[in-house]
Amino acid sequence: MKMTFRWYGDADPVKLEYIRQIPGMYGIVSAVYDVPVGDVWPVANIMALKQKIEAQGLKFEVIESVPVHEDIKLGKPGREQLVANYAQTLKNLAQCGLKVVCYNFMPVFDWTRTTLEKKLEDGSSTLAFEVETVNQIDPAQGIQLPGWDASYKPEALKALLAEYNAIGEEQLWKNLAWFLERVIPVAEQAGIKMAIHPDDPPRPIFGLPRIVKNRQDLERLLAIVDSPANGLTLCSGSLGADCHNDIAAMVREFAGRGRIHFAHMRNVRNNEAGDFYETSHRSADGSLDMAEIMRAYFDAGFEGYVRPDHGRMIWGETGKPGYGLYDRALGAVYLNGLWEGIAKEAAATQGSAQ
Ligand code: DNO
């Protein structure tokens, strides 16, 4: 297991110099942010980023994310050029020594929350999602949710939603298959592992199709191209927002088959209705048994990348919601501690069996 930390580049208030001080930190997860979605990432930009990271004694082997253009998700004309560009980006990344590429296939908007500042009892604040709030929104009137309102003009958003509503889930699957059939052979040849991130939250939203939500979806996705290069970012918090998803069982199954390349570790407090909020990483604070999930990775012989996913805002820190330094650093140390405990226990058991 290799512990990593997401870094948003020079604009990130969390400095690489701070990240390297977190005990047990292996590397950085980042992206080239100044190239428009759909264009090729030039080798020079990737190399510049890599050098900055390596100068701090950290490795740079994971990209999060190379975004997939909406026209590919929608299966529109022009997707041929876009997928060729995507493939070229993968080759360039491989040339620079990158190993894993995280991406997602969520229509319109990546993750969705109804608030970014839910106050917890201890005075910290966190990201939360309430089903009722979303149900009350009429997308035709615009979507006043964090991220959505700033990203699209109401008319453009309306048109995009209509396009997706028209294609539905099965067509979205077909468009994903079209993408994977072209990109995975290139990744395989270049030595890159693709790792899809599940839908967050794992449910349809505003009538938009969502297709990476549970064990069955993951199974279907992996079967589209049966190659280790067609793999997963197993995000405990995204999938765990649905209380019917058994994360440890998914880890045992898919890591056991060598198809999880990147583990996002986040804890959430969920309920039957589908509401959730993000907690500290500690098992006792949320609904997910993080120790059990780490044990599942350990038992599967997982050697991939892990990162503490979102953290709460604590100790007066401000900045990008979910991506402060403090709580994520605590998360990394906690996860490393669990791993060390599990590894020592396993070694002791083995020793006593001999
Ligand atoms: C949220 C992240 C996601 C993730 C993308 C991957 O904080 O986990 O934005 O990076 O879905 O493509």
Automatic annotation (TrEMBL):
InterPro entries: Man_deHydtase (IPR004628), Xyl_isomerase-like_sf (IPR036237). Its EC number is 4.2.1.8. It catalyses: D-mannonate = 2-dehydro-3-deoxy-D-gluconate + H2O. The keyword Lyase applies. It is an enzyme of class 4 (lyase). Gene3D superfamilies: Divalent-metal-dependent TIM barrel enzymes. Coiled coil: none annotated. Keywords: Iron, Lyase, Manganese. One of its GO terms (molecular function) is manganese ion binding. Pathway: Carbohydrate metabolism; pentose and glucuronate interconversion. PANTHER family: MANNONATE DEHYDRATASE. Belongs to the mannonate dehydratase family. NCBIfam families: PRK03906.1, uxuA. This is Mannonate dehydratase. It comes from Silvimonas terrae.
